[in-house]
Amino acid sequence: MPSALQVLNASGTRHAAGAFARDVIRGLSRNPKSLPSKYFYDAEGSRLFQRITELDEYYLTRCEAEILETHAAEIVAAVLPGPLRLVELGAGDGQKTEILVRRLLDTGLRFEYVPIDICRQSVFDLAASFHCRFDGSLRVRGIVAEYFHGLASLGRASRRPSFVLYLGSSVGNFSHAEARQFFRRLRESLRPGDFVLVGFDLKKDLEILRRAYNDAEGVTRLFNLNLLERINRELSGEFDRGRFAHYGPYNLREACMESWLVSLENQEVPIHALGRSFSFRAWEGIHVECSHKYDLSQIESFASAAGFRVQKHFFDRRRWFADSLWQNV
Ligand SMILES: C[S@@+](CC[C@H](N)C(=O)[O-])C[C@H]1O[C@@H](n2cnc3c(N)ncnc32)[C@H](O)[C@@H]1O
Fold it and tell me: What pLDDT was estimated at residue 284?
């Protein structure tokens, strides 16, 4: 297969600026205020997330890398003789994916790698780096898009046997109802026999969780505050990040780490591109992220409710994280 690098903007990002403006108005008009976590990931947000993955406290990336290093051969054996297409949803920097790509190539399989991510910079950097690293043996087609716009842009007619990766426990940002709907839509966009590998962060000691989302260096704080900076940059907002604090408690009822930005005083923040201002009372919060934690019965119920068969769960040695391999039956 000739080497190729292609980066596409799928429909759905074309009106991204308008959607961002609408979601900011909607979110900041709610009680409690909230902003969708997908907007963390502009170029700066993705750079900060990459720093988070290197923090001692942030065990998730290391656990999942350990799972892939340890079990790549078994995962690859399970999905052979395919796939002709390796699709990755929310690929980010693709650091862990490289482990699987190498193992798939070692089997002599030639396939196309399709990272889909909402962050333009991440897709460009990842596509360029994989193109260089695997030159001659891997076709890379990066797609800048929301998950399902990206999948739809692959086209029904040209659907090929696929292996879809959804790593990093990104699913944890969805509510359980949203996650169910996500997996149902994912299955509908696949062919019978296709595989998916989904990363889930597991329930564990609450202090380990607290530290992972409240690191000593304060990178998570900067990552969250970048959302306000992004509103300043793209919508001419006047947020002063010194007037907001990061707060990351564990919600036991929902089994999720929550991220909030908390206003430290009464303040009025103009967002000029929206032609309006938003009032914040002292200690009022903006909810910016949930990171759900799971147990195996929940993972299995997601799979079966969507029509997938669980092939196997793969764990790191401490069983802090699971990569679950499912097949569309
Ligand atoms: C938590 S990071 C995980 C990155 C990588 N998969 C990993 O495991 O390290 C989430 C990634 O998903 C992307 N993302 C978030 N929401 C998205 C959406 N709705 N559609 C496409 N990509 C999205 C972000 O840009 C980011 O790169």
Answer: 98
